[in-house]
Each structure stands twice: as C-alpha cells, then as structure tokens.
Design brief:
Layout (H helix, E strand, L loop, with lengths): L1 H7 L9 H4 L3 E2 L2 E5 L6 E5 L4 E2 L9 E3 L11 H6 L2 E4 L5 E3 L10 E9 L3 H19 L2 E8 L2 H10 L7 E3 L4 H5 L6 H6 L10 H7 L20 E6 L2 E7 L9 H8 L5 E5 L2 E5 L1
Parallel strand pairs: 8-9, 9-10
Antiparallel strand pairs: 1-4, 2-3, 5-12, 6-7, 6-10, 8-11, 11-12, 13-14
Helix pairs in contact: 4-8
Protein name: Thioredoxin-like protein AAED1, chloroplastic
Organism: Urochloa decumbens
InterPro entries: PXL2A/B/C (IPR032801), Thioredoxin-like_sf (IPR036249)
C-alpha cells in the first residue's frame, strides 16, 4: 500500500493567508505562437501579475526561436537574479554561474529543501552529474529556502554543495513564471506520477528531516521546473505541473548532448531540438 506511506512524507505546515499568496508581483513567461502555429517559444512578460496567476500557461515548451532583442531575453533577465551559494552563504548572480556566451547549463529549480520529492530529484541529478560533466554542461540546482536549509539537504542526502543554491525570496521562480499555490501543490493530478517512482523516493528520503523546510511557510506552495541554457539562449523550459512532476531527464540529456533533430511529445512536453 504505497500511497499512505508516500503521503506521510509530506510535512505538515501552517499555510499562509490567501492575501500573502497574491501579494508579490512578477515578470513571468508568456507562450507565443510561431508562424504556422506548429511550435511555440517563450518570451519574457514585462507586465506585473500576481505570483499565483502564472499557472495560466502550458507547462513546457522549447525555445526554438531566437529573441531578436537580446536585452529582453529570458537568459539576460535571469542573469541579474541574485541567489545564494549553499557552500558559502554568499550571494551570487546567475550570470556568474556559467559562460554567458557559449557555456551550457542545466538549471533545475526544486520546490523547497524540505520537500521529499525534491530530495528524490536532487538524488537523480547527483547521479546524472557525471553525464552532464562529460557533455560539458554545468549543473545548477536551486531550492526555496535559506543556505542553511540547503546545507541540511546536501549533508543528509548527500548532494555536492558547490552545485546547490538557495532562493529564499523565490525571485527566479517568479521571473520564470513557475506555478505556485495550494491546488498545484497538494491537489494537482500530475502529482500522482510520484507513486510510479516510489522506490526511488523511499531511497532518497532515508535520511530526510522536516527541518529543511523553509521558515517562510509560503515557500512550500512553490512548484519547480527545469531549464537548459546555451549562453543566454534558452534551449529547453519545463514547468512542473504539480508536486513530483519532474522533467524527464532523458529529454534534458538529449538536448545537453546535442542529439540532432529530436522531436519529443508527451502529455506535458513538446520540444524540437537542433
């Protein structure tokens, strides 16, 4: 009976009042139809909107067209976002984490450091890191919470500290328009996917502790996503629809390893890779 055990892994938290959930404003991602309507790409949304409303867009699309204005690109905007190194606790900008001209980076945004499903994702990323390294790709894992919460995950999972970063104010999540809210976190149908990975989840949380949960309990309502960049160019973007609804690593690796002309399609992913 896997479901009751998995449910017990979800920490009990006091949810913030509804006003807190819609208090922040953000620039997010819009989906734009290309000529012919076959594929779509992402562009930076300039108008502010409440954090909880970012879920209006499709969860995943590629960036298969270059933005004519580099200053308005997602990569350019994300580069100025400040997060914190789990290793040192010091602030760092995204643009300083990889070569902004030709460097390849996988940016994995976890939910929060006290999320059992994120411990599982972090363990998969850790075990896949050698393949990223061999492809010359920098792995960057970001979670909601403070650096001290990140270090709890890193020490107990374990996960290499030098690739782990904290975003306590969810700045990158807001910029990228990742899903946020009670329904997405606890009641989205996509969350049932985690039961198909129950053995992997069970292994990842052997040393789990709820102490890694952010002190700001609003952070537990944040969903994650996966992004691949070449320099400032966004090659792949996927929003997690629900808790545990992670990007397929095979798709990410295909892009990182430059497999030519791959077309991928599933209920939550459509991408064209060159």
């Amino acid at each position: 009976m896997a479901a009751p055990v998995a449910a017990s892994l979800v920490p009990r938290v006091s949810l913030p009042p509804p006003a807190r959930l819609a208090a922040s404003s953000t620039r997010g991602l819009d989906l734009v139809s290309l000529p012919g309507g076959r594929y779509r790409h992402l562009r930076l949304r300039r108008s502010p909107l409440p954090a909880g409303t970012a879920a209006a867009s499709s969860p995943s699309v590629p960036s298969s067209a270059s933005d004519p204005d580099p200053e308005s690109s997602i990569g350019h905007a994300l580069g100025g976002v400040e997060i914190y190194s789990a290793a040192t606790g010091e602030p760092v900008l995204f643009r300083d984490l990889w070569d902004q001209n030709e460097g390849m980076a996988v940016v994995a945004l976890l939910r929060h450091f006290g999320c059992p499903c994120c411990w599982e994702l972090a363990s998969v990323l850790r075990d896949t890191k050698e393949r990223f390294d061999s492809a010359g790709v920098k792995l960057i894992a970001v979670g909601v919470g403070t650096p001290d919460k990140a270090r709890i995950l890193a020490e107990r999972l374990p996960f290499p500290l030098e690739y782990l970063y904290a975003d306590p104010e969810r700045k990158a999540y807001d910029l990228l328009g990742l899903y946020f809210g009670l329904g997405r976190t606890f009641f989205n149908p996509a969350s049932v996917k985690v039961f198909s990975r129950f053995d992997s989840l069970k292994e990842a949380v052997k040393n789990y502790t709820i102490e890694a949960t952010p002190d700001d309990r609003a952070g537990v309502l944040q969903q994650g996503g996966m992004f691949v960049f070449k320099g400032k160019e966004l090659l792949y973007a996927r929003k997690d629809e629900g808790t545990g609804d992670h990007a397929p690593l095979d798709d990410v690796l295909n892009i990182c390893c430059k497999v030519p002309t791959v077309f991928c399609k599933s209920s939550s992913l459509m991408c064209i890779c060159f």
